[in-house]
Write a structure and sequence with these properties.
The protein is mainly beta. Helices cover 0% and strands 56% of the residues. The strands form two sheets. Strands 2, 4, 5, 6, 9, 10 and 11 form a seven-stranded mixed beta sheet that branches. The protein has a four-stranded antiparallel beta sheet with strand order 1-3-8-7, with no helix packed on it.
């Protein structure tokens, strides 16, 4: 059973950089053909896809967040990390990591972490 667990600070001050790590157990992040993804949900809003890193190490981004985000991985620790720079209160959200699997041309997100609340406030 694959499990994902987010970790990071619950409170960040603008314009700091937020760093969140997802630790994966029950499966390797290098296993074909999975996409390890960060998704967030601001209060009262829908899910927003942010960044992903594939089993191969290729990375993908949301155009609206490209300039402020990066994603990396540590294959030895079986972790992947999101960095979001120049945070503002609008970045307050629950941040999720998830595993995506390509299925008939679509990416399906079968496994999710429980989510971590991040509040941006001075």
């Amino acid at each position: 059973q694959v499990q994902l667990q987010e970790s990071g600070p619950g409170l960040v001050k603008p314009p700091q950089t937020l760093s969140l790590t997802c630790t994966v157990s029950g499966g390797s992040i290098t296993t074909n053909y999975y996409y390890w993804t960060w998704i967030r949900q601001p209060p009262g809003k829908g899910l927003e896809w942010m960044r992903a890193i594939a089993y191969s190490g290729s990375t993908y981004y949301s155009p609206s967040l490209k300039s402020r985000t990066s994603i990396s991985r540590d294959t030895f620790k079986n972790q992947f990390t999101l960095q979001l720079s120049s945070v503002t209160p609008e970045d307050t959200a629950v941040y999720y990591c998830a595993r995506g699997a390509l299925n008939s041309g679509l990416v399906m997100y079968e496994y999710w972490g429980q989510g971590t609340q991040v509040t941006v406030s001075s």
